[in-house]
Write a structure and sequence with these properties.
transmembrane; single chain; four-stranded mixed sheet; four-stranded antiparallel sheet; 4 helices; Na/K_ATPase_sub_beta_sf; alpha+beta; Immunoglobulin-like; binds 2-acetamido-2-deoxy-beta-D-glucopyranose; about 280 residues
Amino acid sequence: MANKEEKADEKQSSWKDFIYNPRTGEFIGRTASSWALIFLFYLVFYGFLAGMFSLTMWVMLQTLDDHTPRYRDRVANPGLMIRPKYLEIGFNRSIPQQYNKYVQHLESFLQLYNDSIQDANKQCTDGEYFEQDKAEEKQVCQFKRSWLRSCSGLADSTFGYSEGQPCILVKMNRVIGLRPRGDPHINCAAKRETPLQMQYFPTEGTLDKSYFPYYGKTLHANYVQPVVAVKLLLTEEDYNSELVIECKVEGTDLLNNDERDKFLGRVTFRVKVLK
Ligand SMILES: *[C@@H]1O[C@H](CO)[C@@H](O)[C@H](O)[C@H]1NC(C)=O
Ligand SMILES: *[C@@H]1O[C@H](CO)[C@@H](O)[C@H](O)[C@H]1NC(C)=O
């Protein structure tokens, strides 16, 4: 019995010694100064890692511009899109319920182009890039919806849909810093033998240079992009059949015939008007 107790006592004291040994002053096998050195080492080591990380991060961020994305593919080659945002437009011109969604879509798109809003913007010089100093907030060149004449939705609130001569708005996607050369304009054509008559607003389908360059969402907050309205002057033979229409940006250095990307500088849509 006594033997067993002694052994248990011994075991306990060796455990106690391991946790704290009063003879050597060791705590879990190390002296206080040894532990202090280890803590110091890791403190310096992790501090150094954190410092390295912050430094490289800071250097990286210095090379970024707040307003322009760093990596952009196809910098100077915007896509084209149409409004209303449907690539298949079909309706019976006698039934308003069938074309209302197109009209509403055009109307809401043009809200920003209201003459009352655009009066606050700058009247820019046609045919010249509107270059602005980098620091300040950028001014916006005005583009009034009334310039779209019979496609403005002002005189004819159905944008020609009720008379069967619908308007389509063509716009070019915004690309920061883009300065299209030459005389950029939108040209549309029906893909068929006989040409389809169309009317452009502004005349010649011009995308004026004064709307370029665009400086990005933060600097150029109220920027409105130029649009070209195309009124399809359909005649009796054009009704009840599907027309395929392609619009391209022309007269400039922008790509419009890329084989892989059908929207690069061009857009194709279908129109079928029933009468
Ligand atoms: C735009 O003008 C029309 C009438 O001219 C008005 O009903 C509409 O509320 C205006 N929109 C904005 C956003 O000011
Ligand atoms: C278009 O709507 C009118 C009026 O409802 C109708 O008479 C005509 O047949 C429709 N046209 C077609 C091609 O369905």
